[in-house]
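Hi X.,

You mentioned you wanted examples for the new student's onboarding notes, showing what a folding record looks like when two proteins sit in one file. Here is a clean example. The first protein comes first, with its sequence line followed by its structure tokens.
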Amino acid sequence: MKPLFTVHAGEYLVGSHIEEKFKNLNVWIPSKDTGIDLLVTDSENKYSASLQVKFSKDFLVTHMEDTFQKGLVSCGWWTLNYDKIKASKADYWVFVLHSFNTKIINYVIIRPAELLCIYRDIHKEQKNIQTYLWVTNSKKCWEARGLGKKDQILIANNAYKNSKRELTKYLNNWVPVLKAVKST
């Protein structure tokens, strides 16, 4: 077996987080690229959950005005392919948002089918989806791509309301993964 690729920062952060917080779980790295970045199993390796990991640098410090600095923790940006999400073999996609300022790491853990529904509602069925996930100081997560500045400021001020764009229920919610590996 020759190593064809290395673990990227997001995969490392997710694997480390799982090993630190859920000591009864094992984290595995596949030996070839199958669209699954990490495999999580129970301590006896009987039950598993597969993860696709997406990492973004934090755009808050480098690209956002002062208006947004106090209310937001991190802002990630990804380009996703609709067909790849639809065909994904992973049980969950994990978006990693590492805050440059506070060093806080947030995770958005979501099933690919749910992710598609959200993006279909917001961005229709575009082949390539540009997505901005923003995490606020009030521990909320929003899909902010395509919003006007007024709505962006509302997000930063914890005053925005739009159920189609809110991803808070997926923010740092590892419960579905734990249930999949029978760890709860």
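Then the second protein repeats the pattern, sequence line and then tokens:
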Amino acid sequence: MAGLKACHVLSENFFEIILSERVKKMKKRGVINQQLSNALAGLGHGDYFLLCDAGFPIPKEVERVDLALTFGIPNMDQCLKAILDEIVVQKVTIAKEMKDLNDEGYQFLKRVFKNQKLCEISQAELVKLADNAKFIVRSGELRCYSNILLEAASGVETFKNDFIIDPAQI
């Protein structure tokens, strides 16, 4: 019986050690979707990716990070908030059609990206640029033209300070 008790204690200690090691390795904040977290961590200065709405035509050759759960969930704002907590963005490109057909989204992006270069191109041009994106994040967003091409900035302190985004604006 003593051997059984010792085995039980050893077993409990083993699981305590294993669990404490797992907790040390788990992320404590930020993006917990493994595919998105890995994709964002792999960005280099000047790399770009697309955050798109539910209906965007994603090219087969580009890595797809599909976050869409249901219509409208998660929306563009929610995805952007999580993404901007992880990376520094120096340039944003959107479809110029957004201004007329999704003014709410357009004004939101103007507010959030006031320190970044904001380019407006046709939706057709944005679709072409998607072919060369490092990856594409699909949201459940349903508002028209909610597609944003985000270009990564350098993580070097002296450069990234120019691109600080106020979390209250998201």
